[in-house]
Amino acid sequence: MRARFRLTDVCGWSGLSAALLALAVSCGAGSAQGFTLKTLHVFCRDGSPCDDGQNPSGALTMDAAGNLYGTALSGGANDQGTVFELIPNADKSKWTFVKLHDFCQQDACMDGAQPVGKMVVDVQGNLFGEAHGGFRDGIVYELSPSQNRTGWTYKVLVDLNDLSGWRPFGGLTYAGATAGAPYDGVSPLFGTTETNAEESGPGLAFEVSPQDGNWTGSAIYNFCGDQDCSKGGSASFAPLTGDGHWLYGTTNAGGRDNNGVIFKLGFDKANQQWTEKVVHSFCQTCTRQGFGHSPGVILDREGDLFGASEGEVAPAYGTVYEIPAGGKYRILKKFCSSQNCADGRQPEGPLTLDGANNLFGTTQYGGARDMGTVYELNGAFTQIYSFCAKSACADGSQPLGGVIPDSAGDLFGTASTGGGTAGSGTVFELAP
């Protein structure tokens, strides 16, 4: 994997010589040959009341049968979000949308509101996710299908306020997720929160797991161990990634220049506690390195880390980076290296790898209409799709949740806006 990305070190240069002009084409904004976008669902197609949901922002989840699951941040019966499923027919030429749950069915949304992050599906078909709501804005929930899948039962498993956590964002993960193993339904699930229950301090990492028929949770690590947070992060908006030994993640604050870190958490058996090690500290003065909000990191089979950093100030419009196993941080792609940011800017969604170790991601802005892109890195940078290519953004805009591949090489994702008269987002497929 490490040798595959040498080419893209050049793609981030904003001033290219004539000798590099041909290379710039492969780093630019043209759509990849052969990828076709198909809209699987348009949210709030006919306008208010948007019973199916609005503004999907988290990553999709696919089960072993090829069904897609996701969340909408708002809309639904109570305008506080929904969980949905898309079921394909035999040849995947048609998809059926099913709403599984409306949030905020209890007073003060004690049952949750505004679902966030990617859900986890276990071997029994149960779904696990995070939402705001509850006593102080943060819960972990489960949705379980009936035996014939004609209905779903919703249950709040843990109120994160009981762990002194507040406002989760990144979604859940488990130990075997990186290797592609399905969740067994009994191992711990891990996540992070933005801040603590007092709403004024650093966030935490937590685990939840079933015990004697009930689910319990505990805070495994409180971020910002020292006063100025120079040795760690203070708030995490991104999902964790586990390799069986460490949990990796990112923060958007703390570190050497208070612009976030890449960290790993490990359990110290001798002292019976979790400890943090900073893998990389993002640099404010090195603007072309990327800094600011990060959608997290992923691991390949060789133990290399890959991630994206959003960037907030010109000329830092975001990067894709790699930390090879045992190696140092290096940039694979610098966004907005084409005129008018035609190659994309502000990578927002989490990265994903397919079976051939090709890397895929999304940007919130940039592209032909500045409404976001889907891109691929596989030795060169290629833009797969530029959103709002159709009139009134009928194809969607601003993809925030990244994309996931299936075994045939198709990519699935959500656009948080566009798609219909209400502009409430879509679910899409990109087929090669």
Describe this structure in words.
There is one protein chain. The protein contains one helix and 29 strands. The protein is mainly beta. It starts with 20 loop residues before the first helix and ends with a strand.
Principal-axis shape equals globular
Average pLDDT across residues? 85
Number of strands: 29
Distance separating the two termini: 23 Å
Describe the structure concisely.
By secondary structure, the protein is mainly β. It has one helix and 29 strands.
Q: What labels describe this entry?
A:
432 residues, mainly beta, four-stranded antiparallel β-sheet, 1% helix, 38% strand, disordered N terminus
Fold topology:
Layout: H1 21-26, E1 36-42, E2 61-62, E3 68-72, E4 82-88, E5 95-102, E6 113-121, E7 127-132, E8 139-145, E9 152-159, E10 165-168, E11 189-196, E12 204-211, E13 214-222, E14 241-242, E15 247-250, E16 261-268, E17 273-281, E18 297-299, E19 305-309, E20 319-323, E21 330-334, E22 345-347, E23 352-353, E24 359-365, E25 373-377, E26 381-386, E27 403-405, E28 411-415, E29 426-431
